[in-house]
Specification:
The chain is mostly helical and about 375 residues long. About 55% of the residues lie in helices and about 0% in strands. It contains 20 helices and no strands.
Length: about 375
């Protein structure tokens, strides 16, 4: 057994020695400037006939096989030291996801108010105004229809002086979120022409199912209509969209019909301003023209007088029956002032015209009303 153990130790020692020699050969070859072939092996250089013989390297002494095994044992790390180190894997940085923004609980209300600014006023909201309207809706202080009223009858909207047709078109956009249809537009404009107030038309849109659906979409209570005023609002100048101006057209018609001339700018602005501010009634303005020195200088007979009243007060030509009735009334001794008073107080067409234009029909303080009162004769 001892002999076998000794032989095993020598075999192990020889194997370790050969491993050390093999590891040292590349280093030696680099130091000499060329790789030294192992004994018995030809290289590309030695295969060339013209190559000079390479001096043989000094023989490597045979390792001592009697070395003690314990002395030749090396730690595993020492044998692996010549091998290139494997780089450690590089850690890949993981981007931290950005948290999603928290939804604004007032986003729907903000969108509703922003839409009214855009449709009714044609602009983006200012910060203070937006905050005010959003808070009003958020706290329930006002409903959707009440806030819409604040826009449609705001000075900024009213100053656009929309004519009846353009006014209705704006309501379609604001309350229904769409363009008008021809049939609906005609119905509303005809209703205004027949005496319906703009506030009444507003209520028709504000209480509609379509507006209710829009309010529900934004989480807002629609609400009911507004209280309709006595006279209502009207156009105060040239329409921002089409240029039409009803009150100015009314005064211009008085100039052309009664005075047979175009209005002068100062006079036109004076009368129109008084009518818009309700400082004077339609009847009183008509009286100022028809009994002016300029009108009376024409010396119209009764027929021509009645014909002028139809044009001035009703905006149309006379009808034969009406003309004969009024001539008969004058023939019985009625004064021309009283005929004008009856046109201004009793004629339904004049009442509708005044309502449509947003002007006062007559007042108890009017000169003719002080003479004849404000009660229809029937």
């Amino acid at each position: 057994m001892g002999i076998q153990r000794g032989i095993a130790q020598k075999i192990v020692a020889m194997a370790l020695a050969l491993a050390l020699v093999a590891a040292a050969l590349p280093t030696l070859a680099l130091a000499e400037g060329a790789a030294a072939p192992l004994p018995g092996m030809a290289t590309a250089e030695t295969a060339q006939p013209s190559a000079a013989p390479t001096p043989s390297a000094a023989p490597t002494p045979e390792p001592d096989l009697n070395l003690d095994l314990a002395a030749t044992e090396q730690p595993a790390g020492a044998l692996l030291a010549a091998a290139p180190a494997t780089p450690a894997p590089t850690a890949t940085a993981t981007a931290t996801p950005t948290p999603a923004p928290t939804p604004d609980p007032d986003a729907d209300i903000i969108a509703f108010v922003t839409r009214l600014y855009s449709v009714c006023l044609g602009r983006t909201p200012d910060a203070a105004g937006l905050a005010n309207w959003v808070d009003t809706l958020k706290t329930g202080a006002e409903t959707g229809s009440q806030v819409a009223y604040g826009f449609v009858f705001s000075p900024e909207f009213v100053d656009k002086n929309y004519c009846d047709s353009c006014y209705v078109k704006q309501l379609y956009l604001a309350f229904m979120g769409r363009e008008y249809d021809e049939g609906g537009l005609a119905n509303w404009v005809n209703a205004l022409g027949a005496g319906m107030l703009r506030e009444e038309v507003f209520n028709g849109f504000a209480t509609s199912t379509e507006f209710g659906n829009i309010c529900a979409k934004y989480g807002i209570l629609r609400g009911d209509g507004i209280t309709v005023p006595l006279y209502g609002s009207g156009q105060g100048g040239s329409c921002a969209n089409c240029g039409a101006d009803q009150i100015t057209a009314f005064v211009s018609r008085l100039y052309i019909t009664c005075l047979d001339r175009q209005p002068d700018a100062a006079g036109l602005n004076h009368w129109a301003s008084l009518l818009r501010s309700h400082a004077i009634s339609g009847l009183q303005v008509a009286y100022g023209f028809i009994f002016s020195d300029e009108f009376e200088a024409h010396h119209y007979d009764n027929t021509a007088y009645i014909q002028h009243l139809y044009s001035a007060m009703m905006g149309r030509e006379y009808d034969a029956t009406g003309l004969q009735n009024w001539l008969g009334y004058l023939a019985k001794g009625a004064r021309r002032e009283k005929v004008l008073w009856r046109f201004g107080v009793e004629a339904e067409e004049f009442a509708i015209l005044c309502t449509r234009y947003g002007i006062v029909q007559f007042e108890a303080s009017d000169a003719l009303c002080r003479l004849y009162g404000t009660v229809k004769l029937g």
